Amino acid sequence: MSQNDRDLLLRVKLMIPERIWRLATKPAAWVLKKLPETWKYQIGLKSRANRYPYKAVRTDDVVFQIGAPSDLLFVGRSRAGYFAHLVSGTGKLVVMEPDPINCQELEAFAKRCGIEDRVIVVPKGGWHEETVLSFYQSREHPASAVMSDLNGATPEQMERRGYTEIKVPVTTVDSIMKEYSLPTPRLISITTNGAEQNILLGMKDLLKNGPDFISLAIDDSGYREEMAEIGYEFQADDDRGFTFRRAV
What we know:
CATH architecture: 3-Layer(aba) Sandwich
CATH topology: Rossmann fold
Number of domains: 1
Strand order of the largest sheet: 1-11-12-10-9-2-3-4
Strand content: 15-25%
CATH superfamily: Vaccinia Virus protein VP39
CATH class: Alpha Beta
Number of strands: 12
Number of helices: 10
Helix content: 25-40%
Distance between the termini: 13 Å
Shape: globular
């Protein structure tokens, strides 16, 4: 049975223009950055305990998070931050993130929290093949990074908005599974501003046996038809988009 696990924050965000959202939330983000990480993530874990995709994670699971911007990490809204706290024992969090600064911040976060042994940071983005792609990046808003080919604005427009174009390495989830000799993940979360379906194409081997859950960032289609074709049924609206469960 499907459910709606979206919090009030996301529901409001979806109702207003992105520019207004950023202006409205800037003071709150400044305050949240100043709070101790232990407070933010302990409180956040309690509020997420019964919501997807977090409720799907068990302590000994392997979890993939593809996309881990540092601005969300600092304000206590990072999926990577929560997944890293949820796994333990033989569990591992594998993070694929092409931005080297975001990778460094996540590794430093895990070390400060004493959980670095359960986090594998892969300094590459997710894609359907091994290659190098162009991204538009904003240091002020790391979570808004987007691939050049998926962006409708011109280079001049992006430059005026404060974005620079960078080259980043990308690879497939299947390749990372083999490289690190990982067991089938329980959950794969993909939050990459439009690259979700291309990343799924790089999971053909993995999809033969799992994972149990896939969470995808919000878009206009909702992915339901595409996910049904690869054997997944809609489970819940979540705090980034949609969670799907492998059909029995």
